[in-house]
Write a structure and sequence with these properties.
170 residues; mainly beta; four-stranded mixed beta sheet
């Protein structure tokens, strides 16, 4: 007689992307496999370059490590959660003058920041107050025009924090 088998289903959720593999499974968005009763399936999640693996849910799996599911007496389903990488963009004032920085959720005077998803095109504009002069950007942007920068999808941990300084003078 054929051994009793159960289905192990794997899904993916979240704002990011990635794949799940192991124990005869190799899937992106969703998949399933039939396994013999008593089999322990070991699953690994691999995030795409622009994503982070945020954890497992379902069938007794939790955390961000390997997921081990034993199919003892029923079908099982697990979900891998992938989120897009995010970074903090900080605009900080330098110099003795005053002015305003606006764009991508930033609308401030002396200093502020916004959390943005990796791959977001950032466009900031600096406007000096009356009697002041905008002398330029430093850090991730240079020059005196609008600041435009995009953190690439394959950013490393060193790229997570991007700082932009804006200088206003009398």
């Amino acid at each position: 007689p054929a051994p009793l088998q159960y289905s192990l289903g794997v899904g993916r959720s979240g704002t990011g992307s990635g794949s799940v593999s192991g124990s005869g499974i190799d899937c992106g968005a969703a998949c399933s496999v039939m396994l013999d009763a008593g089999t322990t399936a070991t699953l690994n999640a691999t995030p795409a370059a622009d994503s982070l693996f945020a954890g497992w849910s379902g069938a007794g799996c939790a955390g961000t490590g390997t997921c081990a599911v034993t199919l003892s007496d029923a079908d099982a389903y697990v979900t891998a959660l992938f989120d897009k990488k995010q970074f903090t963009l900080t605009a900080a004032k330098a110099g003795t003058g005053t002015g305003k920085v606006i764009g991508n959720g930033i609308d401030c005077g002396s200093s502020c920041s916004a959390t943005l998803v990796t791959g977001t095109a950032v466009s900031l504009t600096a406007t000096p107050d009356a009697g002041m002069v905008f002398s330029g950007w430093s850090g991730a942007c240079t020059g005196t025009g609008a600041c435009s920068v995009t953190l690439p999808a394959n950013a490393t941990a060193q790229d997570v924090e991007r700082r932009i300084e804006v200088s206003f003078f009398f």
